[in-house]
Design a protein that fits this description.
By secondary structure, this protein is an alpha/beta fold. The chain has helices spanning about 15-30, 50-65, 65-70, 80-85, 90-95, 115-140, and strands spanning about 5-10, 30-35, 40-45, 75-80, 100-105. It is built from 6 helices and 5 strands, in the order βαββααβααβα.
Length: about 140
């Protein structure tokens, strides 16, 4: 049986690009994409909080996953993006204990344009490492 992942993305082009990179990494490890969250072994929510309505939508979406996690404790939920960056992983973990991985957004411009590619690569690798570490822990050290 193939492992499946689902990604929900809100926000800017950077979020779209980050979600595509995470999806590519999961596919590299044998996961296939599904449009149906109930079928997924991994769910990634990439959030935007540029407006209150976007934050409310993100919180509503992640909260809607609590019953899925209760039904399937092996489901890995990764909350990433601006919600984590703005609200902080520790506060969110206390509020959302069913989320396994909290990944702040990548910020490729923080050191200037010359290092943007290196920053983007580092942020992507860091996000994927956190997600894959969670997968390893839930699947007995095996990502596949």
């Amino acid at each position: 049986m193939h492992k499946k992942y689902h990604i929900w993305t809100e926000g800017c082009q950077m979020n779209v690009a980050d979600s595509q990179r995470v999806g590519s990494s999961l596919e590299h490890f044998g996961y296939t994409f599904t449009d149906i969250p109930d079928e997924a072994d991994v769910i990634v929510l990439n959030t935007c909080v540029v407006r209150q309505s976007a934050e409310d939508k993100a919180i509503g979406r992640v909260s809607s996953l609590a019953p899925l996690k209760k039904k399937n404790p092996n489901l890995v939920i990764n909350l990433m993006g601006c919600l984590v960056g703005v609200r902080g992983a520790e506060k969110l973990k206390a509020r959302m204990p069913y989320v396994d991985v909290f990944s702040p957004p990548s910020d490729p411009g923080r050191h200037g344009p010359d290092s943007a590619d290196a920053d983007r690569l580092w942020a992507h690798e860091w996000q994927c490492d956190r997600l894959l570490a969670a997968l390893d822990g839930l699947h007995g050290g095996q990502c596949l």
